[in-house]
Amino acid sequence: MSGRDESTNPFSLLADETRLGIVEAIGDRSGDGEYASLSYSTIQTALGEVDSGRLNYHLRQLEGRFVEHTDDGYRLLIPGIRVYQAVTSGQLAADRPTVPPTEIDSPCGDCGDPLFVSYEEGRVFVRCPTCDVTYHRYPLSPSAFDPGDAASLADAGLTVAFADLRSMLAGVCPYCSGVVECTLSADDRGDLGLEGPETFAHLTCSTCGWFNHPQATMATYLHHTTAVFYERHGRAAPHSRLTVEGEWSETVRSTDPWRVEVRVTLDGDTLRHVVDENLDVVEWEVDGWGTTRQRPAKHGRRAVTLDRTASTASGESPFSLLADETRLGIVEAIGDRSGDGEYASLSYSEVRAALDGVDTGNLNYHLRKLRGRFVERTDDGYRLLIPGIRMYQAVASGQFAGDRPTVPPTEVDSRCEGCEEPVQVAYEDGRFFVRCPTCEVTQIRYPLSPNAVDPTDVDGLVSVAMTKIHLDLRSMLDGLCPYCSGAVHHDVSTADRGDLGLDERDAFAHLTCSTCGWFNHPAVEMVAFHHHATEQFYEERGRPGHYTRPNVDGELEVTVESEDPWRIEVRVTLDGDTLRHVVDGDLDVVEWEVVD
Ligand SMILES: [Zn+2]
Ligand SMILES: [Zn+2]
Ligand SMILES: [Zn+2]
Ligand SMILES: [Zn+2]
Question: What's the CA-to-centroid distance between 551 and ligand 3, angstroms?
Answer without folding.
Answer: 11
